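Submission sheet (multi-component)
Chains listed below:
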Amino acid sequence: MAAFGPLSDGLWAAFSVAVRFVRVLILLAIWRTLIPPDVVVSGYRLGAVLTYSLVAEVFSAQLNVRTPIGAALWNGTIATRFTWPMPLATQYAAEMVGDWALPMVLVSAPLLLLAPLLGVDPLPASAANLALFPVSLGLAMAIGIAIDMASTVLIARIDLGPWVLNAARAVVHAICSGAWVPLALLPFHLGSLFAWLPFASAASAPLRIYTGTGDPLPLLALQLAWVIALTVAVRVAWNVSREKVALYGG
Amino acid sequence: MATVVELCGVHKSFRRRARSATFAGLLRDLARPRWEIVTALNGIDLAVEAGEMVAYAGPNGAGKSTTIKLLAGLLAPDVGTVRSLGADPVRDRVRYVGKIGVVFGQRTELWWDHPVAATFAWRKTVWNIPDDVYRRSLAFARELLGLDPFWSAAARELSLGQRMRADLALALVGEPQILFLDEPTIGLDVLVKQEVLEAIRTLNRERAVTVMITSHDMADLEQLRARIVLLKEGAIAFDGSFEDLRRRMGDRRRLVLETDSEVAPALPGATHLGSEGMRHEYAFDAIATPIPELLAAAAVRAHLVDVETHRAPIEDMIADLYRGWRGASSGYLATRQRGREHLPSGSAMYSRPRARGQPP
Amino acid sequence: MAAETLRLFGAGARLNVARILRTREQAIAHTLTDFIWHSGAMLAPILVAVRFGHIGPWPANAVVFMLAYGAAVSSVMDALGDSPWHMSQRVGRGQLDHLLVQPQPLWRILLTEGFTPFDFWPVLTLGLVLMAWSSARLHVQVSPGWLGLLGVNLLASIVVETAFLYAWGCVAFWAPRGAEEISSAASGLVGDLSFPLDSMPRALQVVLVSAVPSGLLSWLPSRALLQIPGGCAMDAWLTPLAAMVLGAFAVALFRLGLGHYRHTGSRRYTDNGHRR
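Outcome: structure written.
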């Protein structure tokens, strides 16, 4: 239902997601400006950075998970969802996956196919990296959902409009996750610090595994640790705040 | 009495995209979109005089909300003219909407995060309402609709009934000359509905505010003792009083007999609707089967303990009417005697609006 | 006319203050997170510029100026309320009716409803301070003429962004469901491209100062004001010129769309985002 809704008025919805193509082109051009072809910068060759940026855009929704729960909280429709015979997280996760369908078809798949024309190698570093990438991506999505649910609880507890916290999340994601700029390319060793945070596990880790610019096992271990820690923390916070969440929005 | 609202030969249609539910159909629709024309209004001629209370009713899709939107300046007619307070609601929108109040039942004008009071203050500024008018109309609205218990509450903390009352009060500050209410009682509980309807009656009676109200709830509209304009498929099927409407549809009544038996006696000319213990309810047409005749038949067939007659709920009559328009006929309709006229469709039943002060 | 518009701005400002002060946590959270959002949006390009010392012909301080300029434009845009950012949502969700029942010209309502000057003053201040700091570091000759040019370009950039968002938002008049989120997509397009564009292919540069005018929101005006190599003398007037053309186009398109809306109305309604 969530996937086909935007198509009910024709192809205008497709246009909305197609603007992402332009953003990718600009990002690729910027890296080409900054990194000469034969130079290694903080462990990254130009080719790896280009692949990194491309794949980050291909999986942008999965690397920056936003469930519909924030908007539902603000509208007050979340209360009715408690009457569905399904955990809340499952409901919104399913709706979120439906929302991903159209952009995956219209942007992600074409980007991968057109990558050679853009001068980008879309292939992973190796077959082993390819095998580990879905695992890492799954863990990254789990971390993303946990962060989203934690934000929901925070919004309800301190009675904030969702957009306020979402705005802060957006910038944290942009700087600390490595989705825009590979963490190793940040100055002042900031990347080394950010790599330990859950945001990096939610975005940078799978991208580094895909491009072969990070050791997969430590990255996967850190992701798993964050999944466990955040799941426990969010469960506790959710149970404590369930009533507030249901009542939020009237 | 001055005519404040006038619709002449108004037609309004909408183009609607036909959508498939299957995936194959969806793809087909993307390549070759299909369109349907939906006629909302089909030649409406309507005049409303100052101080009138007009109930605008009809089945779903009859064109009620479309009419309100035309009069609120939100839509322009395809054909025909719409004039209200001497203005074209669309062309003269800015000047015109300052003199009217509009309430859509399922929409709120309140600022979500702010106390109700703040929205009123905002309205005063945007509507540029003079201080004395604002104070006077606000005091009146607050008392009429009982806003004080939640005056300081944020809109998102209000119940539906409270929100509706606040929205109605908001439409009243500035002392509008006409009030357009589109389904204002939808979703409200019985008590709040009564309070809102009473407020509307008071406004019309004491302040001579012209009111045009749409609703599905015919009992509500009948309570208002309004002139009723009944729409059928975008055209006026009836325009008159509720009494007139009842007369035209036959004098439908209910008879409740309490007997000493749980078996309901069969009464000629009456349809047994149901029984609860020894209380038996019947529907009948008092013109076809006069009450004395029916009571005499009942007395012969059962030992009567108690007898009660009252008019049939207007909802049942209207439901039968709508059913008839859709082509089906109910068992109850079938009891009507020959010679009774059906309500014709189209504008043929339109009659000049009664003058204010005439009995319904 | 100006007095009436200011009066309505005042109403918006009062609501803004009231909302911020409603709870202590909310006041702090509002200010802090807005600051984080806008400063964070600048941070990624600045960090890259610092890391590499430059981005193309732009030294790091010039990148700071460019981003600060963009933040100043963005903060004024945000203070003007939801209308430009959410035009397509307003139209697509049937919320335009809420504006049409107000006894004010539509342009005034769109300009003033949702005015939130107290949400974004920290970012505007940050932008102005960083522009001053970076231009001092770059030894820019700050004269009344230069300041006038800066003001004209800032205003022009605001008009360009507003007009662009309105123009795309108008698509929702004809496709209310499909184009409902097109304003968000358009704002993401112009907002997410805060990088110097000198090294882009020429064709892409032309696109980014015309059809997708993100280059006019900070890059081109900054390049002209800082006299970065690669520009020309006319660059300082391109943004104001584009503002006039794009503004006229957006107004014409909006009028066309509104005329269409008058005849079709909105068959769907949700109050999601309305006065929230």
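Remark: The CA atoms of residues 52 and 357 of chain B lie 10 Å apart.
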